[in-house]
Amino acid sequence: MQTILCFGDSNTWGYDPIDGSRYDFATRWPGALQKNLGSDNYRIIEEGLNGRTTAHNEIERPIRSGLEILPVLLEAHRPLDWVIIMLGTNDLKTHFNSSAEQIAANVGLLCDGVLQSEYLAAHRPQLLVCAPTSANEASQKLPEWFVGASQTARDLPELIEREARNRGVHFLNVARLLDHDFQDSLHWNSVQHLTVSKAIASVITG
C-alpha cells in the first residue's frame, strides 16, 4: 500500500466556487485521484486548506504558511511514498508583494523540507511539485487583492519547474492543463478537478 500526501490550498481542499461549500470526496482532485489509482494499492491523505500559501500568514487567517505546517504533517503522516505539493496561488495576493522568483524559491524550500526531513529519512518518498493555476483577471468576480496577479504568475510555472529540476523531483504544470475559465476567477469546477487528478495519476503510475 502506497501512501500519498496531497498538500495544497483551497483547490486541494475542494472549494466549490458556486456556493463556497466543499465538493464531496469523489469530486475533489485527491478523491478523484484515489479512484483513478484504486484503493487496493494506494491511500490518499488530503491536506488542503483555504488560503494556504508557501510561506505567508495573515492576521485574520493564521497558520496558513506551508513552510511552517509541512514539517508537522510529514511527522504526523509518515511513512509516506509520495508527497504532492501544489501551492503558490495565494502568494499572488497583492498585499504579500511577492515576486514570481520569491514564490518559486519558497516552493523550493518546501521541496527541501520533504527531501531533508528527519522523519522521512528511513523511507524517503517521491516528490511531485505542481505549478498551480492563477487568478483569472478576465473575471469580474476577481477579488481586488488578486488584481495584477497574472503578471506575476506568468513566469511562475517555469520558475517552479526549475526548482523541481534542480532537486531531481517530478514536476507537473497544472496551470497549463486548465483553461482558467473559473466560475469565481480562482476555483475549479468538477471537470477541472477530474482533469488534474488524471494527470497526477499518470505521473504516479509512470
What does this structure look like?
The chain is built from eight helices and five strands; from the N terminus they run βααβαβαβααβαα. It has about 210 residues and is of the alpha/beta class. It has one domain: Rossmann fold, CATH 3.40.50. The protein has a five-stranded parallel beta sheet with strand order 2-1-3-4-5, sandwiched between helices. Helix 4 links the parallel strand 3 and strand 4. Helix 2 crosses helix 8, helix 3 runs parallel beside helix 4 and helix 4 packs parallel to helix 6. It is globular, with a radius of gyration of 16 Å. The two termini are about 15 Å apart.
Sum this structure up briefly.
This protein has one domain (2-205): Rossmann fold (3-Layer(aba) Sandwich). It contains eight helices and five strands.
